[in-house]
Amino acid sequence: DARVTQTPRHKVTEMGQEVTMRCQPILGHNTVFWYRQTMMQGLELLAYFRNRAPLDDSGMPKDRFSAEMPDATLATLKIQPSEPRDSAVYFCASGFPGGSGSKAGELFFGEGSRLTVL
Amino acid sequence: SQQGEEDPQALSIQEGENATMNCSYKTSINNLQWYRQNSGRGLVHLILIRSNEREKHSGRLRVTLDTSKKSSSLLITASRAADTASYFCATDAGRKETSGSRLTFGEGTQLTVNP
Predict the structure, then answer these.
(1) What residues of chain B lie within 8 A of the CB of A95, using their CB?
(2) What pLDDT, in 10s, does the model give residues A76-117?
(3) How far is B42 from A81, CA to CA, in rounded Å?
């Protein structure tokens, strides 16, 4: 089965360190999303790309977060410098908006990267 | 801010009973989707209902949508212990040709099905 792959699954780091999370979307999907999940805020949309172009990153703290999609098979989310408040589970999801069929608009999520910043 | 709000926040039932979860939202939508999340895992899509649909079925799942009340419900019939998970509604307020462009998730309902 096709799936979204995220690495690392778990990351513990110290405040101030750089953290990079990677995502391999499902082949053929043209839209990639980054979400962050915390107990307090729930699921928050950080950024998304369409055909590798950033469409919306308004949910992302610009001073420390950056998201890129260097090619169709790789999306990255970088935090530099990391802070304890960044501790969360970061999810990547991919989809094919506007596609045909009953499930057009469905998102496929990876298993997430659990980040702990000490 | 969250577009969708689920109710109840937590639900505990016995195996074999039905579970109903509700979702309310604020703005016009293109479609509404329900996702499930097992503890420590990613979200899995369950069902999508478009704004011009009122009811949809998938196996033991039944979703209704009332756009006049801006609300949806997810019914799981004959629940099983394996249905224990968090359930999220997500609204897509984008244009139809770009459906799935920006899903906004609610805070979820934690369902516990006791054996």
Answers:
(1) 100
(2) 999 999 999 999 999 999 998 765 555 567 899 999 999 999
(3) 26
